[in-house]
Amino acid sequence: xxxxxxxxxxxxxxxxxxxxxxxxxxxxxxxxxxxxxxxxxxxxxxxxxxxxxxxxxxxxxxxxxxxxxxxxxxxxxxxxxxxxxxxxxxxxxxxxxxxxxxxxxxxxxxxxxxxxxxxxxxxxxxxxxxxxxxxxxxxxxxxxxxxxxxxxxxxxxxxxxxxxxxxxxxxxxxxxxxxxxxxxxxxxxxxxxxxxxxxxxxxxxxxxxxxxxxxxxxxxxxxxx
Length: 225
Prior knowledge:
Layout: H1 13-27, E1 35-37, H2 43-47, H3 54-62, E2 66-68, H4 72-75, E3 92-94, E4 110-111, E5 114-116, E6 121-126, H5 137-148, E7 154-159, H6 166-172, E8 180-183, E9 191-194, E10 202-205
Parallel strand pairs: 1-2, 2-3, 3-4, 6-7, 7-8, 8-10
Antiparallel strand pairs: 5-6, 9-10
């Protein structure tokens, strides 16, 4: 795999990284973090001898620290080639609503939330709430928000939970909302709406759909106002 930081590397993740390079070059200096949506369905993954564990090799090569995925991948381990690749210190699953007991092999490699750019941004990611080894998204987010609130400046929630609409989930967080809520499955035009519903959060819908790549770039100033 060629280096993702050279112009000759094109397609797939390299194209996404090229967008990051372009934004960084335009602004001169910009901290970025790439969170990977785990791929199970493309022809590359389906035909590869390692099947979906090849994602881990790709992420390590591209220097990607975090990914999120359907909780079912934790339950579906039998017969997977090189499944132990998931258990490494370079790449961790970033997902709040996973039911992973302390004695499970996955436990050291799953993070409930991440503090990015020092202690500036706290990121909470949720996926499906109805699959095996999953937890209810709303309750999980509220717990994570309470934990992060005194520890970071801005809290961002990204929801890839197709079992409920982002706006329904957002309404359930009204008692203790994040600062930014990113709805990855809204299927709407990418947009950010301040003070959606009766909460103080910035609601963002990232245009989605089968086979598309969601890239949502948010530039945080010193104040959200």
